[in-house]
Design brief:
Length: about 425
């Protein structure tokens, strides 16, 4: 015979189990009733996989998250947009794709949804540099920012201290440190950068050019004349190529992942890169140099120059052909919310909200957050170091090839930049933008 207490306890366990089963069934039914969406994003968005079930539990919307390498996402999204299909409802949009996507209306403007659902106070929490640069063009908002990344120069504080070197400020400082900290017999090298032909080389060079005070377009949006045939650009490229002497073997074929791995594994002393990659240097679980990494701005030609923070980021955009607008917008609102942004910031250090940027735990883990905060407020963020216009792919093609040729030594830096500048100028004119 079961006692009254045991009977009540047994009944309670059965009731709890029944309630759990009912909730699980209700959640599944809700997900089914709300439908699903497909989201295509780059590799760095794999971190949100663990959080997606929270979104489904909150909204009842199932998410098919498709993670692709950067180049593959670029190719597939372009093919789908051109063909007019809606294989994905939501796409991660790189800042440099904004011009092409907006000009061709590949994605749906979000202004009506933002006005309906996002309060003015909530919008004030979104980093202004991120919002304007990633999402807005032609008077419309084509995506909502979800990540904000900044180009910084990361360096090994332990090696600098041992060598009696101060934090690098100028290109001359970088050159001195790179040479002094290279010990090939110890498999230790001063610096590594992308040199492989393609988008990374073009992007990293333009970030260095911006640090030196250069602007690839003279005065956009009124004058789109390219400036890569300038003495400053040549000086930057000569320094950039000169770093090969202090780079690991095979660096001529390195892309951005190679640089990240070289820093993580303790092979190099310096790496200029986006902060989303810099987070991988300071995580003890993936980096052998965690706790030994400092950061500073991109090098300047003269210490008296103002620092520049080249900026990049991703937004989430809704396919213009999808019929799942409300579900897609619900996902974007959730991913860009203060709660989720703070969670993501602790994982990848790329928040696009002041509240997440200023979170104590985030700042403790990624100590450059206060610097980025001040840069945003001071207007030192430079999203224009890469043009956010439809002719960006032509810039990558021309500049990526010529930079690599100069690094290989088949052409001089001056000739490489002159050729690239002329090709870029023709592409800009063909796209209908004014040059003088």
């Amino acid at each position: 015979m079961i006692s009254g207490i045991k009977r009540r306890k047994t009944f309670g366990l059965i009731a709890a189990a029944t309630l759990t089963a009912t909730l699980m069934t209700s959640t599944a039914a809700l997900a089914q009733s709300k439908g699903s969406i497909t989201v295509s994003a780059v590799s760095s968005f794999k971190l949100i996989e663990a959080l997606v079930p929270e979104f489904t539990a909150e909204t009842g919307i199932a998410v098919d998250l498709q993670i692709l390498p950067y180049d593959q996402l670029r190719q597939r999204s372009t093919a789908e947009f051109v063909s007019g299909t809606a294989n994905s409802d939501v796409y991660a949009q790189d800042i440099v794709w904004l011009g092409e996507w907006s000009k061709n209306a590949y994605v749906r403007p979000l202004d009506d949804l933002i006005a309906r659902d996002i309060t003015p106070d909530d919008l004030k929490d979104v980093l202004p540099g991120a919002f304007d640069a990633v999402s807005k063009q032609g008077g419309k908002t084509w995506s909502f920012p979800v990540t904000a990344t900044y180009f910084l120069m990361y360096y090994r504080t332990d090696l600098f201290k041992q060598a009696g070197l101060a934090e690098p400020v100028t290109f001359a400082d970088i050159n001195t440190a790179a040479e002094k900290l290279t010990a090939k017999d110890k498999n230790q090298y001063g610096i590594d950068m992308p040199y492989k032909r393609g988008e990374s080389f073009a992007t990293w060079f333009l970030a260095a050019y911006a640090g030196a005070g250069g602007k690839i377009l003279k005065d956009a949006p009124t004058d789109f004349t390219p400036t890569l045939d300038s003495p400053v650009a040549a000086q930057v490229l000569k320094n950039y190529i000169g770093w090969l002497k202090s780079a690991p073997n095979g660096a001529i074929g390195h892309d951005r992942p190679d640089q990240t791995i070289a820093m993580q594994t303790g092979k190099i002393a310096m790496a200029a890169t986006f902060s989303v990659n810099g987070t991988e240097f300071v995580k003890p679980e993936v980096s052998s140099v965690a706790g030994k990494v400092g950061y500073t701005t991109m090098p300047r030609l003269e210490a008296s120059q103002k620092p520049v923070y080249p900026f990049g980021g991703f937004g989430m955009a809704i396919n213009a052909k999808t019929e799942k607008v409300e579900n897609s917008w619900a996902f974007i609102k959730w991913l860009s919310s203060a709660k989720v942004q703070t969670k993501l910031a602790l994982l990848n250090g790329t928040p696009m909200r002041y509240s997440a940027l200023r979170d104590a735990a985030v700042q403790a883990k990624f100590p450059w957050m206060p610097v980025v905060d001040k840069a945003e407020q001071a207007g030192q963020v430079s999203p224009d170091f890469r043009p956010r216009y439809p002719f960006w792919p032509q810039i990558v093609e021309a500049l990526g090839l010529q930079l690599n040729s100069a690094a290989l030594g088949t052409v001089t830096p001056e000739d490489a930049l002159k050729t690239a500048n002329e090709q870029i100028r023709k592409a800009i004119v063909a796209a209908g933008y004014p040059v003088k």
